[in-house]
Amino acid sequence: MAISRAEVEKVSLLARLLLSEEELDKMTVQLGAILDYMDLLNEVDTNDIEPMAHPRDVTNVFRADECRPSLPREEALANAPHRDAECYLVPAVLGET
Amino acid sequence: MTHSADPPYDLVIGLEVHVQLLTESKMFCACSTKFGAPPNTQTCPVCIGMPGSLPVMNRKAFELALKAALALECEIPRMTKWDRKNYYYPDLPKGYQISQYDLPMSRHGGLVISDPKGRFETKRIGILRAHLEEDAGKSMHDEQAGKADSRIDLNRAGTPLLEIVTEPDLRSPAEAKAFLTELKLLLNYLGVSDCNMQEGSLRVDANVNLHVHTPQGPVPTPIVEVKNMNSFRAVERALAYEAQRQYEAWRETGRRLGDVPKQTRGWDESRQATFEQRSKEESSDYRYFPEPDLVPVTVTDEEVERVRASLGELPARLRARLEATYGITPYDSDVLVNQGRALVDYFVALADRCGDGKAAANWIQQDVLRTLNDRQIGIEHFPVSAEALADLIQKVRGGQLETSRGREVLAGMIETGKPADEIMAAMGIRPVDDADLRDLCRELLRANPKIVADLKGGRLKAVGGLVGQAKKRNPNVNPSRVQQLCLELIQEL
């Protein structure tokens, strides 16, 4: 197997996904299949190939440091499940101030 | 519980400093970075992480970062790229932060720190790397009972940050504070960041542990990351506290580096203590991967040289020049340079004009800086020009008035903005004719046979009584000239 069940559990925790026992089993198999498929790439000889940081051969795309109007607050907050007049509301984050 | 002798350990400190770059707009979108706007009024689909939105790099942010990196003597790789640092937190709308992982825009630099008071040797603190990343938003926690929710303001999300990571080269809280002070000054001179800690544009975390001296050699203790330090003084105190705490923990538990996971502790200003926050996730838990929405940035040699040439005179070199050119002490140059470029320009104009660097430094440090502090203003708003103050200093040096009266005249100049001559005239200060002064001294000698006898008997201090009387008769007399004349005239008696 390309990935262990314990690794899938860890990754699901990091991704804040609560998976059932059955789902964990299923994900282990499916993620393993994906990783096995990706392993096909290792068959390609890359010895003389320069590493690349991006699939497109483009660099230095910049914008000028100029401001443009932001979203009206009502629009920015429109999709928030919980909000007050000014802010997004989330359950209190414990253990930090 | 402080140990008077050298503590039985070396304190090892590395700092991570985040500074906000002085751009108008955010790093990857055109929202304003201005501090203090009402919550959630400076956001757009890019910085609140709407699906389908795409980031575009702010050129100015990259240039400011390049300036800072070069001033920190860093190597600039010819290619740099962006990575996603994945973690979940309510103030991070995309679920990842755009940062730089394995190919940062700069690395392997250093910053020299020194202490005019001599508490530590001048040394170079290594810079491991400096890289660009975006800031997160702000969470506000209402302490009020019954209000369980946290409020999230995303105005700050996407503001460009430069993260500067030092080598673990710092050995005391005083060195850490000196490093931060020098770094802030450097970034101010460069115009890269205003480094205002109150507004969060400079934030510091420290990694601290001890190398305890044992008969078997030095033993490293577990590394602790200290956060929540809201001033340079808080950094100094938190590090001193942490050193003592870690030494006591080591004596109690004997735990070494590697025995426990890295711990994060927060500094509590009101209790003057650090408290445990959480065990740090390992860096692989951030699952960094290349940011597919941004293309790499390449930098040419010409560009690096162009930016290097634009840095101007930086604090360390400026101090050395002031000391060499004007004969002032390292302490003086440190005070002047730490006040910023505008004050240094004022000093240079003043010293050049009055021809006495030491006097110029003294007048600035005593009268000028006190006024700036009292009025909470910068030198740009100081009501007396360098030319006008130089004129006054020359009068004092020329003996037209003594220093204490000169300071009164300066107070008048500050109050009214008028030149020294007018203030002196208004105060009734005018030069005393030397022949008149001679007459006055003769008269005083005649009237004070007791003092004359003392002087003749070799008790030269007695002349002070004559000086005092002379000043009473005419406040404009130059005391040293009175003294000189009296001692001269006594020979004639």
Structural commentary:
The complex is a heterodimer of chains A (97) and B (493). Chain A has a domain at 5-42: Histone, subunit A. Helix content of chain A is 35%, strand content 6%. Chain A has helices at 5-14, 21-39, 73-77, and strands spanning 62-63, 88-91. The model of chain A has no long low-confidence stretch (mean pLDDT 90). With 493 residues, chain B is of the alpha+beta class. Chain B has 3 domains: 9-303, no CATH class; 313-426, no CATH class; 434-492, Arc Repressor Mutant, subunit A (Orthogonal Bundle). Chain B is built from 15 helices and 17 strands. Chain B has helices at 59-71, 173-190, 232-253, 301-309, 315-326, 330-338, 341-354, 357-375, 386-397, 403-416, 420-426, 434-447, 449-456, 463-473, 479-490, and strands spanning 9-20, 57-58, 79-80, 83-86, 96-99, 106-113, 123-134, 138-141, 149-153, 160-166, 202-214, 217-220, 224-229, 263-268, 273-279, 289-290, 297-298. In chain B, helix 2 packs antiparallel against helix 3 and helix 12 (434-447) packs across helix 15 (479-490). The N and C termini of chain B lie far apart (70 Å). In chain B, 38% of the residues are buried. At the A-B interface, strand 1, helix 3 and strand 2 of A face strand 2, helix 1, strand 8, strand 9 and strand 17 of B.
Overview features:
heterodimer; A: 97 residues; mainly alpha; Histone, subunit A; 2 strands; flat; B: 493 residues; alpha+beta; Arc Repressor Mutant, subunit A; nine-stranded mixed beta sheet; three-stranded antiparallel beta sheet; 17 strands; 20% strand
Task: Describe how the helices and strands are arranged.
The complex is a heterodimer of chains A (97) and B (493).
Chain A: H1 5-14, H2 21-39, E1 62-63, H3 73-77, E2 88-91
Chain B: E1 9-20, E2 57-58, H1 59-71, E3 79-80, E4 83-86, E5 96-99, E6 106-113, E7 123-134, E8 138-141, E9 149-153, E10 160-166, H2 173-190, E11 202-214, E12 217-220, E13 224-229, H3 232-253, E14 263-268, E15 273-279, E16 289-290, E17 297-298, H4 301-309, H5 315-326, H6 330-338, H7 341-354, H8 357-375, H9 386-397, H10 403-416, H11 420-426, H12 434-447, H13 449-456, H14 463-473, H15 479-490
Parallel strand pairs in B: 13-14
Antiparallel strand pairs in B: 1-10, 1-11, 3-17, 4-5, 4-16, 6-7, 7-10, 8-9, 11-12, 11-13, 14-15
Helix pairs in contact in B: 2-3, 5-6, 6-8, 7-8, 7-9, 9-10, 12-15, 14-15
